[in-house]
Amino acid sequence: MMVRTATPDDANKIARVHVEAWRVAYRGIIADSVLDGLSIEKRESQWREWIEAPPGPIEIFVSDDVKGFISIGPSRDQGATSSTQEIYAIYIDPARWLTGLGRALTEHAIESARKRGAKRITLWVLEANRAARSFYERMGFSLDGEKKIDRIGDADLVELRYARTL
Question: Considering the entire predicted model, what is its pTM?
Answer without folding.
Answer: 0.93
